[in-house]
Amino acid sequence: MTSILSVDRLTKTYDGGFTALDAVSLEINEGEILALLGPNGAGKTTLISTICGIVQPTSGTVSVGGHDTQENYREARKLIGLVPQEINLEPFEKVINTVRFSRGLFGKPRDDAYLEKILRQLSLWDKKDDAIRTLSGGMKRRVLIAKALSHEPRVLFLDEPTAGVDVELRRDMWEIVRDLSDSGVTIILTTHYIEEAEAMADRVGVINKGRILLVEEKGDLMARMGQKELRLDLTDAVDTVPAALTSFDLELEPGGTRLIYRYDTRAERTGIVRLLTALQAEGLHVSDVETKQSSLEEIFVGLVKEGEGA
Protein backbone atom coordinates (compact mmCIF):
# COMPACT_ATOMS: atom_id res chain seq x y z
CA MET A 1 0.00 0.00 0.00
CA THR A 2 1.09 3.60 -0.68
CA SER A 3 2.02 5.74 2.33
CA ILE A 4 0.34 9.17 2.41
CA LEU A 5 1.74 10.31 5.77
CA SER A 6 5.18 9.56 7.18
CA VAL A 7 6.30 10.56 10.68
CA ASP A 8 9.96 9.92 11.56
CA ARG A 9 11.23 10.20 15.15
CA LEU A 10 9.01 13.18 15.91
CA THR A 11 9.81 14.71 19.30
CA LYS A 12 8.27 17.63 21.16
CA THR A 13 9.83 18.83 24.41
CA TYR A 14 8.49 22.00 26.01
CA ASP A 15 10.61 24.66 27.74
CA GLY A 16 9.84 23.26 31.17
CA GLY A 17 11.36 19.92 30.16
CA PHE A 18 8.12 18.00 29.61
CA THR A 19 8.34 15.63 26.62
CA ALA A 20 4.91 15.38 24.98
CA LEU A 21 6.16 13.32 22.03
CA ASP A 22 9.08 10.92 22.35
CA ALA A 23 10.61 9.91 18.98
CA VAL A 24 7.27 8.97 17.41
CA SER A 25 7.50 7.14 14.07
CA LEU A 26 4.41 6.28 12.06
CA GLU A 27 3.44 5.34 8.49
CA ILE A 28 -0.17 5.85 7.44
CA ASN A 29 -1.46 4.32 4.22
CA GLU A 30 -3.57 6.08 1.65
CA GLY A 31 -7.31 5.47 2.11
CA GLU A 32 -7.14 3.75 5.50
CA ILE A 33 -8.84 4.61 8.78
CA LEU A 34 -6.39 4.67 11.69
CA ALA A 35 -7.73 4.99 15.23
CA LEU A 36 -5.26 6.43 17.72
CA LEU A 37 -6.08 5.38 21.27
CA GLY A 38 -4.57 6.67 24.47
CA PRO A 39 -5.49 8.06 27.89
CA ASN A 40 -5.68 11.78 28.63
CA GLY A 41 -2.26 13.38 28.27
CA ALA A 42 -0.93 10.51 26.14
CA GLY A 43 0.13 12.85 23.30
CA LYS A 44 -2.68 12.30 20.79
CA THR A 45 -3.61 15.95 20.28
CA THR A 46 0.04 17.08 20.38
CA LEU A 47 0.86 14.60 17.61
CA ILE A 48 -1.98 15.87 15.41
CA SER A 49 -1.12 19.50 16.14
CA THR A 50 2.53 18.95 15.26
CA ILE A 51 1.71 17.17 11.99
CA CYS A 52 -0.67 20.02 11.07
CA GLY A 53 1.93 22.70 11.85
CA ILE A 54 0.10 24.16 14.84
CA VAL A 55 2.92 23.05 17.18
CA GLN A 56 6.59 23.22 16.21
CA PRO A 57 8.49 19.95 16.78
CA THR A 58 11.73 19.84 18.72
CA SER A 59 13.13 17.31 16.29
CA GLY A 60 12.06 14.75 13.70
CA THR A 61 10.28 15.06 10.36
CA VAL A 62 6.79 14.78 8.91
CA SER A 63 5.97 14.22 5.25
CA VAL A 64 2.45 14.45 3.76
CA GLY A 65 2.00 13.30 0.18
CA GLY A 66 5.76 13.59 -0.29
CA HIS A 67 5.92 17.18 1.05
CA ASP A 68 8.02 17.87 4.16
CA THR A 69 5.94 19.93 6.61
CA GLN A 70 8.94 22.05 7.61
CA GLU A 71 10.52 22.65 4.20
CA ASN A 72 7.30 22.82 2.16
CA TYR A 73 4.62 23.63 4.71
CA ARG A 74 2.04 25.20 2.39
CA GLU A 75 1.94 22.26 -0.02
CA ALA A 76 1.80 19.75 2.84
CA ARG A 77 -0.94 21.66 4.70
CA LYS A 78 -3.12 21.84 1.57
CA LEU A 79 -3.42 18.06 1.76
CA ILE A 80 -4.65 18.07 5.38
CA GLY A 81 -8.08 18.67 6.85
CA LEU A 82 -8.38 19.08 10.62
CA VAL A 83 -11.47 18.71 12.79
CA PRO A 84 -10.46 19.88 16.28
CA GLN A 85 -12.02 18.83 19.59
CA GLU A 86 -13.31 22.29 20.39
CA ILE A 87 -16.28 23.73 18.53
CA ASN A 88 -14.99 27.16 17.52
CA LEU A 89 -17.31 28.64 14.90
CA GLU A 90 -18.62 32.14 14.15
CA PRO A 91 -22.09 31.91 15.75
CA PHE A 92 -23.86 34.49 13.57
CA GLU A 93 -22.49 33.31 10.21
CA LYS A 94 -24.43 31.06 7.86
CA VAL A 95 -23.33 27.46 7.36
CA ILE A 96 -22.65 27.88 3.63
CA ASN A 97 -20.59 31.05 4.11
CA THR A 98 -18.54 29.40 6.84
CA VAL A 99 -17.62 26.53 4.52
CA ARG A 100 -16.96 28.83 1.54
CA PHE A 101 -14.61 30.95 3.64
CA SER A 102 -12.59 27.88 4.70
CA ARG A 103 -12.19 26.83 1.07
CA GLY A 104 -10.99 30.31 0.15
CA LEU A 105 -8.38 30.28 2.91
CA PHE A 106 -6.57 27.51 1.05
CA GLY A 107 -6.65 29.43 -2.22
CA LYS A 108 -9.20 27.16 -3.85
CA PRO A 109 -11.53 28.68 -6.48
CA ARG A 110 -15.22 28.87 -5.68
CA ASP A 111 -16.99 25.58 -6.36
CA ASP A 112 -20.57 25.59 -5.11
CA ALA A 113 -21.29 22.17 -6.63
CA TYR A 114 -18.51 20.57 -4.57
CA LEU A 115 -19.64 22.32 -1.38
CA GLU A 116 -23.21 21.21 -2.01
CA LYS A 117 -21.98 17.63 -2.34
CA ILE A 118 -20.19 17.85 1.02
CA LEU A 119 -23.13 19.46 2.80
CA ARG A 120 -25.53 16.86 1.42
CA GLN A 121 -23.17 14.07 2.46
CA LEU A 122 -23.15 15.50 5.99
CA SER A 123 -26.95 16.07 6.04
CA LEU A 124 -26.38 19.83 6.26
CA TRP A 125 -27.78 21.02 2.93
CA ASP A 126 -31.16 21.96 4.38
CA LYS A 127 -29.28 23.97 7.05
CA LYS A 128 -27.01 25.83 4.61
CA ASP A 129 -28.66 29.23 5.21
CA ASP A 130 -29.03 28.78 8.98
CA ALA A 131 -26.86 30.69 11.44
CA ILE A 132 -24.36 28.49 13.26
CA ARG A 133 -25.80 29.51 16.65
CA THR A 134 -29.15 27.88 15.81
CA LEU A 135 -27.63 24.43 15.25
CA SER A 136 -27.40 21.56 17.71
CA GLY A 137 -24.04 20.40 19.02
CA GLY A 138 -24.05 17.42 16.66
CA MET A 139 -24.81 19.64 13.65
CA LYS A 140 -22.00 22.01 14.64
CA ARG A 141 -19.59 19.08 14.60
CA ARG A 142 -20.78 18.26 11.09
CA VAL A 143 -20.03 21.86 10.08
CA LEU A 144 -16.49 21.41 11.43
CA ILE A 145 -16.09 18.37 9.18
CA ALA A 146 -17.49 20.29 6.20
CA LYS A 147 -14.98 23.10 6.85
CA ALA A 148 -12.13 20.58 7.05
CA LEU A 149 -13.20 18.98 3.75
CA SER A 150 -13.90 22.23 1.92
CA HIS A 151 -10.44 22.42 0.28
CA GLU A 152 -10.48 18.77 -0.86
CA PRO A 153 -7.78 17.34 1.44
CA ARG A 154 -6.39 13.83 1.04
CA VAL A 155 -5.86 13.34 4.79
CA LEU A 156 -8.48 14.13 7.44
CA PHE A 157 -7.70 14.35 11.17
CA LEU A 158 -10.63 13.90 13.54
CA ASP A 159 -9.68 14.78 17.11
CA GLU A 160 -12.33 13.21 19.39
CA PRO A 161 -15.03 13.64 16.70
CA THR A 162 -17.93 12.28 18.76
CA ALA A 163 -17.10 13.83 22.13
CA GLY A 164 -20.26 15.09 23.78
CA VAL A 165 -22.72 13.70 21.23
CA ASP A 166 -25.40 11.12 21.97
CA VAL A 167 -25.23 7.50 20.88
CA GLU A 168 -27.47 7.96 17.83
CA LEU A 169 -25.45 10.90 16.52
CA ARG A 170 -22.24 9.01 17.22
CA ARG A 171 -23.35 6.17 14.99
CA ASP A 172 -24.31 8.68 12.30
CA MET A 173 -20.79 10.08 12.50
CA TRP A 174 -19.35 6.60 12.10
CA GLU A 175 -21.33 6.23 8.88
CA ILE A 176 -20.02 9.59 7.64
CA VAL A 177 -16.43 8.55 8.35
CA ARG A 178 -16.88 5.26 6.48
CA ASP A 179 -18.34 7.12 3.49
CA LEU A 180 -15.41 9.53 3.47
CA SER A 181 -12.97 6.63 3.58
CA ASP A 182 -14.78 4.93 0.71
CA SER A 183 -14.35 8.14 -1.31
CA GLY A 184 -10.55 7.87 -0.90
CA VAL A 185 -9.91 10.18 2.07
CA THR A 186 -7.33 8.90 4.57
CA ILE A 187 -8.69 9.31 8.11
CA ILE A 188 -6.83 9.47 11.42
CA LEU A 189 -9.08 9.76 14.44
CA THR A 190 -8.35 10.02 18.12
CA THR A 191 -10.98 8.70 20.44
CA HIS A 192 -11.77 7.75 24.02
CA TYR A 193 -14.52 5.43 22.81
CA ILE A 194 -13.00 1.98 22.35
CA GLU A 195 -16.16 0.85 20.54
CA GLU A 196 -15.50 3.59 17.97
CA ALA A 197 -12.11 2.13 17.07
CA GLU A 198 -13.49 -1.39 17.11
CA ALA A 199 -16.37 -0.45 14.80
CA MET A 200 -14.52 1.72 12.28
CA ALA A 201 -10.75 1.40 12.15
CA ASP A 202 -8.64 -0.60 9.72
CA ARG A 203 -5.65 -0.25 12.03
CA VAL A 204 -5.31 0.72 15.67
CA GLY A 205 -2.46 2.70 17.20
CA VAL A 206 -1.89 2.94 20.93
CA ILE A 207 0.00 5.93 22.35
CA ASN A 208 0.93 6.59 25.97
CA LYS A 209 3.32 9.10 27.55
CA GLY A 210 4.28 10.38 24.12
CA ARG A 211 5.36 7.00 22.78
CA ILE A 212 3.68 4.77 20.23
CA LEU A 213 3.24 1.36 21.87
CA LEU A 214 2.06 -0.29 18.66
CA VAL A 215 0.25 0.19 15.36
CA GLU A 216 -1.41 -2.94 14.03
CA GLU A 217 -4.28 -4.23 11.92
CA LYS A 218 -7.32 -4.32 14.18
CA GLY A 219 -8.15 -7.94 13.42
CA ASP A 220 -4.54 -9.07 13.79
CA LEU A 221 -4.22 -7.23 17.10
CA MET A 222 -7.26 -8.93 18.56
CA ALA A 223 -6.20 -12.33 17.25
CA ARG A 224 -2.65 -11.91 18.52
CA MET A 225 -3.38 -10.50 21.93
CA GLY A 226 -6.97 -11.51 22.56
CA GLN A 227 -7.95 -14.43 24.70
CA LYS A 228 -11.14 -16.38 24.51
CA GLU A 229 -13.18 -17.27 27.50
CA LEU A 230 -15.25 -20.46 27.73
CA ARG A 231 -18.15 -20.22 30.16
CA LEU A 232 -19.54 -23.54 31.32
CA ASP A 233 -22.89 -23.58 33.12
CA LEU A 234 -23.31 -26.59 35.42
CA THR A 235 -26.59 -28.34 36.08
CA ASP A 236 -25.71 -28.64 39.77
CA ALA A 237 -23.78 -26.19 41.93
CA VAL A 238 -20.38 -27.11 43.41
CA ASP A 239 -18.54 -25.59 46.38
CA THR A 240 -15.04 -25.82 44.92
CA VAL A 241 -13.27 -26.86 41.74
CA PRO A 242 -12.40 -30.59 42.05
CA ALA A 243 -8.70 -31.27 42.65
CA ALA A 244 -8.50 -33.32 39.44
CA LEU A 245 -9.32 -30.13 37.44
CA THR A 246 -6.77 -27.76 39.00
CA SER A 247 -4.41 -28.07 35.99
CA PHE A 248 -7.02 -26.24 33.87
CA ASP A 249 -6.83 -23.13 36.09
CA LEU A 250 -10.62 -22.83 36.21
CA GLU A 251 -12.45 -19.97 37.90
CA LEU A 252 -15.62 -20.80 39.81
CA GLU A 253 -18.12 -17.94 39.85
CA PRO A 254 -20.13 -17.12 42.99
CA GLY A 255 -23.10 -19.44 43.26
CA GLY A 256 -21.09 -22.42 42.08
CA THR A 257 -22.95 -23.02 38.81
CA ARG A 258 -20.52 -21.49 36.31
CA LEU A 259 -16.92 -22.34 35.51
CA ILE A 260 -14.70 -19.96 33.50
CA TYR A 261 -11.91 -21.39 31.34
CA ARG A 262 -9.55 -18.99 29.51
CA TYR A 263 -7.44 -20.11 26.59
CA ASP A 264 -5.09 -18.60 24.04
CA THR A 265 -6.49 -18.48 20.50
CA ARG A 266 -2.91 -18.77 19.15
CA ALA A 267 -2.24 -22.06 20.92
CA GLU A 268 -2.01 -25.24 18.84
CA ARG A 269 -4.38 -26.94 21.27
CA THR A 270 -6.97 -25.15 23.36
CA GLY A 271 -7.47 -27.94 25.89
CA ILE A 272 -11.25 -27.72 25.59
CA VAL A 273 -11.76 -31.37 24.63
CA ARG A 274 -9.60 -32.54 27.55
CA LEU A 275 -11.52 -30.23 29.88
CA LEU A 276 -14.92 -31.54 28.82
CA THR A 277 -13.71 -35.13 29.21
CA ALA A 278 -12.34 -34.35 32.69
CA LEU A 279 -15.61 -32.69 33.73
CA GLN A 280 -17.54 -35.77 32.70
CA ALA A 281 -15.14 -38.01 34.60
CA GLU A 282 -15.74 -35.92 37.73
CA GLY A 283 -19.49 -36.26 37.34
CA LEU A 284 -20.04 -32.59 36.48
CA HIS A 285 -22.74 -32.05 33.87
CA VAL A 286 -22.72 -28.99 31.63
CA SER A 287 -26.09 -27.45 30.74
CA ASP A 288 -24.80 -24.60 28.54
CA VAL A 289 -21.57 -23.39 26.96
CA GLU A 290 -20.72 -19.82 25.87
CA THR A 291 -17.55 -18.31 24.43
CA LYS A 292 -16.45 -14.68 24.76
CA GLN A 293 -13.66 -12.95 22.82
CA SER A 294 -11.50 -10.34 24.57
CA SER A 295 -12.60 -6.87 23.53
CA LEU A 296 -10.33 -4.19 22.13
CA GLU A 297 -10.91 -2.26 25.36
CA GLU A 298 -9.41 -5.04 27.46
CA ILE A 299 -6.44 -5.27 25.10
CA PHE A 300 -5.94 -1.49 25.20
CA VAL A 301 -5.99 -1.33 29.01
CA GLY A 302 -3.44 -4.15 29.14
CA LEU A 303 -1.13 -2.41 26.66
CA VAL A 304 -1.22 0.88 28.55
CA LYS A 305 -0.41 -0.91 31.81
CA GLU A 306 2.52 -2.65 30.11
CA GLY A 307 3.75 0.68 28.74
CA GLU A 308 3.59 2.32 32.17
CA GLY A 309 5.64 -0.51 33.61
CA ALA A 310 8.30 -0.27 30.90
UniProtKB/TrEMBL annotation:
<keyword id="KW-0547">Nucleotide-binding</keyword>
<dbReference type="InterPro" id="IPR017871">
    <property type="entry name" value="ABC_transporter-like_CS"/>
</dbReference>
<keyword id="KW-0813">Transport</keyword>
<dbReference type="InterPro" id="IPR027417">
    <property type="entry name" value="P-loop_NTPase"/>
</dbReference>
<keyword id="KW-0067">ATP-binding</keyword>
<dbReference type="GO" id="GO:0005524">
    <property type="term" value="F:ATP binding"/>
</dbReference>
<dbReference type="InterPro" id="IPR050763">
    <property type="entry name" value="ABC_transporter_ATP-binding"/>
</dbReference>
<dbReference type="GO" id="GO:0016887">
    <property type="term" value="F:ATP hydrolysis activity"/>
</dbReference>
<dbReference type="InterPro" id="IPR003593">
    <property type="entry name" value="AAA+_ATPase"/>
</dbReference>
<protein>
    <submittedName>
        <fullName>ABC transporter ATP-binding protein</fullName>
    </submittedName>
</protein>
<dbReference type="InterPro" id="IPR003439">
    <property type="entry name" value="ABC_transporter-like_ATP-bd"/>
</dbReference>
<feature type="domain" description="ABC transporter">
    <location>
        <begin position="5"/>
        <end position="234"/>
    </location>
</feature>
<dbReference type="Pfam" id="PF00005">
    <property type="entry name" value="ABC_tran"/>
</dbReference>
